[in-house]
Specification:
The protein is built from ten helices and 15 strands. The protein has two domains: 162 residues, Medium-chain alcohol dehydrogenases, catalytic domain (Quinone Oxidoreductase, Chain A, domain 1, Alpha-Beta Complex); 140 residues, Rossmann fold (3-Layer(aba) Sandwich), CATH 3.40.50. The longest helix is centred in the middle third of the chain and has 14 residues. The chain is α/β, with parallel strands linked by helices. The radius of gyration is 20 Å and the shape is globular.
């Protein structure tokens, strides 16, 4: 089976192009998906689009080199499968970690993909990827006290919701944006606007002086790692969920050693791709279940709907007005 596809490619900083290619045949364990939608990542993709991702200057991160095929949240209908495929069949709706393309080819047992139940809204299911990433921090936490999430973007918002859903702990979100914090408040979580409120004083007030045992850094802003270590309780934990965009200078003795604080890396690869509940696949299944039940709220993240040829405009929206452009959905059935 020959497969022709069109896909978005970053050919250089601030340059995105639509390119065509063909695959002569699929292997016995491959799945061909005709994509309906893909979702732009406002963090990683924007860093790759602008050339600011730390990987461009790190010789060990070899994938951060142009040309780059962006995207890792796509959904569509299975149109063909190899003879050895067991997990899905033509006609199934599949969420997968494919790039921005009209057609994706997925390797069963190697690439993560999830059959979307009929009760789950297809566009909401696109947020499974961000939910799975956010779940990493919830799974990594070893404490039981209050939680502070630094950053109210998609990742921070979903992380806060998942902490509340899965643990029942008090959850507080801090951000500079009133718009982002308003979304958090809608879900019954507490908020702090660090542009107008003193973080330490508000934490003390909200926790009756107990402070927080867990702080999740969900923005990638280097300076916030130090803020997190300063604000967390002694014997607490700081979980690095956001990919830090630059170097961090720390007084390790004062902020970690003397406070007995655990500094935890929560990159998604902390957990195996496949396996039981403690795996990337297990986290993804839990997120889809929460989306289907309506426990995890993502409606307000769906802010923009574009054609593939409008992608350049969309990345500039994220660069120039990130508070009002959260979830940008590319419609592949409306491509030109």
């Amino acid at each position: 089976m020959k497969v022709d596809m069109k896909e978005l490619v970053f050919t250089g900083s601030f340059r995105v192009e639509m390119m065509a290619r063909s695959v002569d045949a699929i292997s016995d364990n491959e799945i061909v998906v005709s994509n309906r939608y893909s979702l732009i990542s406002p963090g990683t993709e924007l860093a790759l689009f602008t050339g600011t991702h730390v990987g461009f200057t790190d010789p060990e991160i070899t994938w951060a080199r142009y040309p780059i095929k962006p995207g890792y949240a796509s959904l569509g209908e299975v149109i063909a499968t190899g003879p050895n495929v067991k997990t899905c069949a033509p006609g199934d709706i599949l969420f997968h970690y494919g790039t921005h393309a009209d057609i994706s080819i997925i390797k069963e047992g190697q690439d993560l993909c999830f059959t979307v139940p009929s009760g789950c809204d297809a566009q909401k299911a696109l947020f499974t990827r961000f939910g799975q990433i956010s779940y990493t921090a919830v799974a990594a936490s070893q404490k039981t006290g209050a939680v502070l999430v630094l950053g109210g973007g998609i990742i921070g918002n979903l992380c806060a919701q998942l902490f509340a859903i899965r643990t029942g702990r008090q959850v507080i979100v801090a951000d500079l944006s009133n718009e982002r914090l308003a979304l958090i408040a809608q879900y019954g979580l507490q908020t702090i606007n660090t542009a107008s409120e003193d973080l330490g004083k508000r934490l003390a007030a909200l926790t009756d002086g107990k402070g927080v045992d867990t702080i999740v850094e969900a923005t990638g802003v280097p300076d916030l790692v130090r803020v997190a270590l300063q604000q967390v309780n002694p014997h607490g934990e700081v979980i690095l969920l956001g990919s830090t965009r630059g170097k961090v200078e720390l007084d390790v003795y004062k902020l970690i050693h003397r406070k007995y604080v655990a500094l935890i890396g929560a990159h998604e690869n902390r957990y195996p791709k496949f396996g039981g509940a403690e795996s990337q696949y297990g986290f993804g299944c839990a997120v889809i279940d929460a989306l289907t039940r309506g426990a995890l709220k993502v409606d307000d993240f769906l802010t923009d709907h574009i054609r593939p040829d409008q992608a350049d405009r969309a990345y500039h929206w994220l660069l120039e007005d990130k508070d009002h452009h959260l979830g940008i959905v590319i419609h592949w059935e409306d491509k030109e």
